[in-house]
Protein: Phosphomannomutase
Organism: Rhodobacter ferrooxidans
Amino acid sequence: MTLTCFKAYDIRGRLGAELNEDIARRIGRAFAQTLGARRVVIGRDCRESSVALTTAATEGLIAAGADVLDLGLCGTEEMYHAVTHLGADGGIEVTASHNPMDYNGMKMVRAASAPLDAETGLAAVKALAESGDFAQAVPGSLHEALGARKSYIETVLGLIDIPALRPMTILVNAGNGAAGPTFDAIEAELAARAAPLRFVKLHHTPDGSFPHGIPNPLLPENQPVTAQAVLAAGADMGVAWDGDFDRCFLFDHLGRFIPGEYIVGLLAEAFLACEPGATIVHDPRVIWNTQDVVARAGGQAVMARTGHAFLKQVMRDTGAVYGGEMSAHHYFRDFMACDSGMIPWLLIAELVGRRGMPLADLLAERMARFPSSGEINFRLENPAAAVAAVVAALECQALSRDDTDGVSLTFADWRLNLRSSNTEPLLRLNVEARGDAGLVARAVARISALIRAV
């Protein structure tokens, strides 16, 4: 058997041939056997297929001798937290995040919520799941992970200075994903601690049929519904999550979507104010704003390959206080060096309160100084040929080239990154410039023409 659902650092596949209950059972058993795991945390998102896949993966884990601690419906970050909090040997979240309806997948970590990729065990899990050469073991057992959400909320709110919060109205859009119940628990605890925040909820109830579309706020076509709701509510800012809420996306009080790299810069500045000289990790796609902010604040900027497993490992290797990707993954040293979609918006609300100015004003100067294109996706049969065409046309004019992740070409006043997705059949383009939004638009038009001509 050849399993095509194994990707660079997680599992994603089309339901049926690429991922089904038998495959999930094999993966669960291989995960426990490969890691020698005696206790494994498991959780799931709200997709209709996730219940059956979680049951099958649990059966595999138990067959390999693992005791399984079941979180039920939860976000990926709740699984990360529970692995460390409960002293488990690993964790699995059954989720396809923002992928299409006919997909599902799994995100996995080792003990202490450490990332799992090909070099740290994922390749061995794949090989064993494919071969089916499983060892006999005394079956484990299934238990409810009692108290896990309460502990998770205590950790999350422990990173926030609640007395610094000021009265705000915040529009929250869960996209009918997994965020709603967890948010409600956070909201209740904030109210118990007298936080002066008022929330307006949109598409809040989990519904695996996703009646309002797949929750992927990074796509421009999905942003107007949140933007309009922010304006209608007179909210001070808006928050939208993806399906497993490990990413959150922010909107200012004018309903404008805030590209992720500017939030990375804002959070980096806030952490460096508390820890001068600290390390900040960022991805290679859009870098100039983050690097400028970190340099001005006296920190150390470290670039890591795109992808949560890669960022987490660099966070751990460097002891970085914070890391961020322009795709809205935000990583925190004091949250197991893992990503969270709940911590960022809370920190931004705290920062708005401290600075006494709206999010739009906090970011206006940075967005003008370093305009960017946003991520532009191309669905292609031959992405490598398209990358080669762009490089052939433009590399001779570039000041430098970097191949950390895909191809990055730097010119005097602008920069591009072109890379294939780790999880989807897409070629992704990002362009940034120094103070010239028109230059960004012209560069995007030229590169897009080169790509489409292949």
Q: What stands out?
A: Residues 437-452 form the longest helix (16 residues).
